[in-house]
Amino acid sequence: MHYPAGVRVEKKKDVYYGNRGMTLENDLNDTNNYYLIHDIAIVHKKPTPITINRVDYKSRSDAIIREARFKIPSTTDYNGIYKGKYIDFEAKETKSKTSFPLSNIHQHQIDHLRSIINHGGIAFIIVRFICFNETYYLDANDLFSFLDNNDRKSIPYSFFKEKGHLILDRYNPRVDYISVIDSLYFKEVV
What we know:
Layout: H1 22-37, E1 42-45, E2 50-57, E3 63-70, E4 78-82, E5 85-94, E6 99-101, H2 107-118, E7 122-129, E8 134-139, H3 140-149, E9 154-156, H4 157-163, E10 165-167, H5 177-185
């Protein structure tokens, strides 16, 4: 901004961290909506359970939540049903060019994915490497294999290239993970 007398004042940019990972989430929500509309699968985003501690009421229709806490640790981001099979998955984005930090996925989420597999469901993670604009489906069994056989704090990008399944961007459905599920679990027998 330029003021009279040539004084230049730079406005500080506010930094917000609340919507990190929202691009993948929005793409998945659009994808799941496409699956629902076309009667392909029923998959929904799970709401994060919170307890509201403080609300400002200007009026009943204009209430603003000022303070809230997580009730319990959430499990994973999405769940639903496809071809009679329960599916459950976590979605993450990373800016790293070399790996996916395991700090991005919590132990209770890994335990939850193990439970899904143990009960015959389909469990996986979807990871988007932002710098490459690549999105990978990684089956939970491959995730567990990596975790059980490594002491690393991150999963190398090369592991996703080797064991993961690249999901190509499309117009509709945007992130077609169902085609990967089809290729892994519902192969046509001729």
